[in-house]
Amino acid sequence: MEHPENNEEYKGLAVNKGIEQPSSVNPYLKRKPKKRLFTVADYVEGIVKGNITILSQAVTLVESVKPEHQSIAQEVIEKCLPYSGRSIRVGISGVPGAGKSTSIDVFGLHVLEKGGKLAVLAIDPSSERSKGSILGDKTRMEQLSVHPASFIRPSPSAGSLGGVARKTRETIILCEAAGFDKIFVETVGVGQSETAVHSMVDFFLLIQLAGTGDELQGIKRGIMEMADGIVINKADGSNIDKAKLAAAQFRNALHLFPAPDSGWTPKVLTYSGFYNLGVKEIWDMVYEYMDFVKANGYFDYRRNEQSKYWMYESINEQLRDSFYQNAQIEQMLGEKEQQVLNGNLTSFVAAKKLLDTYFEELRK
Ligand SMILES: Nc1nc2c(ncn2[C@@H]2O[C@H](COP(=O)(O)OP(=O)(O)O)[C@@H](O)[C@H]2O)c(=O)[nH]1
Ligand SMILES: [Mg+2]
Predict the structure, then answer these.
(1) Per the domain annotation, does 272 fall within a domain?
(2) Residue 20 needs a FRET pair 20 to 30 A away by CA distance; which of 9, 145, 154, 273 works?
(3) What is the best residue among 95, 100, 102, 188 to mutate for testing ligand 1's pocket, by most ligand atoms within 8 Å of CB?
(4) In this structure, are 153 and 226 located in the same domain?
(5) Structural domain of residue 66, as residue ranges?
(6) CB-side exposure of 120: number of CA atoms within 13 Å?
C-alpha cells in the first residue's frame, strides 16, 4: 500500500497520490549571462572618453592582487600612457588633525573654479589596518565628494608602502587619461609615505600647525626639505598670531637648507581651511611654481627622474616578490632565520645561501 494512512482503520481520511514537483528553477527562464569582463580595449576606450564607472573599475583592477587582473591592468595602463601626463600633480601632506581633509575640500573647489577635473588619491600604508584612515572621512570633503568634476579614491590597501605607492602612481596615469588635469595625492605626515608621494608629484605641499612654540621640533628634516611650499593651517580666531610666528620660524629654518634643485625658493604661508582664508594665495603660489619650473626645464626633468625612479622601484618590487614567493625559499627561510638567531650562521652567509638556492631554482 502506497500510503498507510489509507488503511481501513482510519475513517474519513484519504491521502492522494502526490504529483511530481517541478524544479524550483524555472527551466524556461534564460540564465542570466555572467557579468561580462571588459576587454583591454573596452577599458581604454571608456577611460579616454572620461567614463567614471569604467575608470573606477580599471582602478580596482590596478589595486587587485590577482595576477589575471594585474595583467589586464598593466595593458590598460600602457595603452593609456600616451593620453597621460597633461596635469598638475600636487602632493598634500600633514600629520593627522592638521586639516588635510578640510583643506582638500576647499582647495578642490578653488582649483575647479577655473574648470577642469580633479582626482583626489591617497597613499596610506596603514590603511589595511585602519581601514582607510585618510580619505575615509568623505564627510570632511562634503562639497568635493558631490562635485561632478571630482573623483575621490581612498588609498589602496596593498600591504607594503612600495606596493601602495606604485598603485597610486598607476592610478594617476589612468585618471589623467580620463581627462583629469589636476591630481591631488594625500598622505599622512609621518615617515616614509612622503618620499613616495614626493616621487610622483610636481609640487609637494606640507600642511603644518602652529601652537606648541617649538613647531620645528619633531618635523623630520627630510620632509621639510621635500616641501615646495609649507602652509600653516588654522590661522583663524585667536590662533592667527601664533600661526604667523610659526611661519616666521619655518622661513628661518628653510634658509638653513641647501637651495633645492628646482631653483625655486619654497614659500611659507598661513591660511585657514575651515574659514577659507588665504586659500587663493596658496594656489597662486602653486601656479607660480608650475610656470617657474616649466620655464626653467625642471618640470620635465623631475618627471623624467620620477619615471626612472619608478622603473627601479618596480624592478626591486618584482625581484623581492619573486624571491619570497619561491616555494623553496619559503621553506628554507624559517630555518635559516633560526640558525642566524642561534648564532650558527652569520646573517650574510644565511642570505647568500638563500640567494644561491634561489638562483639555482631559477635555472631549473
Ligand atoms: N580652527 C580650525 N580648525 C580646523 C581647520 N581645518 C581643520 N580644522 C579642524 O581640525 C580637525 C581635523 O581636520 P581634518 O581635516 O580631519 O584633518 P586631517 O586629519 O589632516 O584630515 C577637524 O576638527 C577640523 O574641523 C581650520 O582651518 N581652522
Ligand atoms: Mg583626513
Answers:
(1) yes
(2) 9
(3) 102
(4) yes
(5) 36-83
(6) 30
Residue 313 grid coordinates: 622601484
Instruction: Give yes or no for residue 87 CB within 6 A of ligand 1.
Output: no
pLDDT in tens, 338-363: 999 999 999 999 999 999 999 999 99
In tens, the pLDDT along 85-108 reads 999 999 999 888 899 999 999 999
Quick one: 96 and 43 in the same domain?
no
**Domain count of the chain?**
3
CA of 151 to the centre of ligand 2 (A): 16
| H/E run at residue 198 | helix 193-198
Beta-bridge partner residues of 170: none
State the Cα–Cα distance between residues 153 and 197, nearest whole angstrom. 15
d(CA 246, CA 220): 16
Q: Residue 99 is part of a domain; what is its CATH number? A: 3.40.50.300
Parallel, antiparallel or unpaired: strands 150-152 and 267-270: unpaired
State if residue 94 touches ligand 1 by the CB under 6 angstroms criterion: yes
* 130 assigned to some structural domain: yes
Ligand 1 centre to CA of 101 (Å) is 7
Q: 98 lies in a domain?
A: yes
Query: Which residue has 601652537 as its cell numbers?
Result: 211
Average pLDDT, the chain: 88
